[in-house]
Amino acid sequence: MIGNLNHVAIAVPDLEAAAAQYRDTLGAKVNPPQAEPDHGVTVVFIELPNTKIELLHPLGNDSPIQGFLDKNPSGGIHHICYEVEDILAARDTLIASGARVLGTGEPKIGAHGKPVLFLHPKDFTGTLVELEQV
Amino acid sequence: MIGNLNHVAIAVPDLEAAAAQYRDTLGAKVNPPQAEPDHGVTVVFIELPNTKIELLHPLGNDSPIQGFLDKNPSGGIHHICYEVEDILAARDTLIASGARVLGTGEPKIGAHGKPVLFLHPKDFTGTLVELEQV
């Protein structure tokens, strides 16, 4: 059911410093920051040959990652995203297995313009998992 | 300098339950557990089309991930691993940038039989980063 690891999302307290570290020290291909006001984040995409790293920084007063940064002031890995072909089929299989889907259970349009869902971390090895339909 | 994301390592309190979830619910290709006594872990490799997930569980009395599980009883993402072509050159560049390398600073042979180093999470967006020479 799951396909590629689409990205690893890392919440960071200083977006420019983190982007500079990946660009200048690690020599990665780092894209310019993108404001995603609908998701309460500014995102920097880092392109690795086989997947992406997404640096996330809070945008606005109601960012979903502010609480994470309050608990993890140095930043940290916020979630991982797996690709699926059919997000509704994936959701139904997961719910049938006892896993909880966050929010209403209906997919939303994610930062890449594609339907996404998040699974409850307690049901997935303590890991916040995003599913993205590709 | 960095190449592929080699793997995402997730520490889990119940290796069989986590492996079953990836295999049966998510439909991923899950390999049998491998004991790595030199690293104090039992590892289950999950093969995604573009990278790997490594489920880690403590092995023996002095496992480096026991403390992580004590703090995160449901499990969680423990580290991410980037591939590099020349680990000594990568290390020297990182140290010159002010990043700290864990341990002696000399590469060890990792769970894949290749030289690895770990970087201090405080110097990398709160994320434990492993570098593996490929």
Automatic annotation (TrEMBL), chains A, B:
Domain of life: Bacteria
Lineage: Bacteria, Pseudomonadati, Pseudomonadota, Alphaproteobacteria, Rhodobacterales
GO MF annotation terms: metal ion binding; methylmalonyl-CoA epimerase activity
Homology family: Belongs to the methylmalonyl-CoA epimerase family.
Protein name, per record: methylmalonyl-CoA epimerase
GO annotation, biological process: L-methylmalonyl-CoA metabolic process
EC numbers: 5.1.99.1
Stored InterPro entries: Glyas_Bleomycin-R_OHBP_Dase, MeMalonyl-CoA_epimerase, MMCE/EMCE_epimerase, VOC_core
Domain VOC, residue spans: 4-134
Catalytic activity of the protein: (R)-methylmalonyl-CoA = (S)-methylmalonyl-CoA
Alphabetically ordered keywords of this record: Cobalt, Isomerase, Metal-binding
NCBIfam families (alphabetical): metmalonyl_epim (TIGR03081)
Source organism: Jannaschia donghaensis
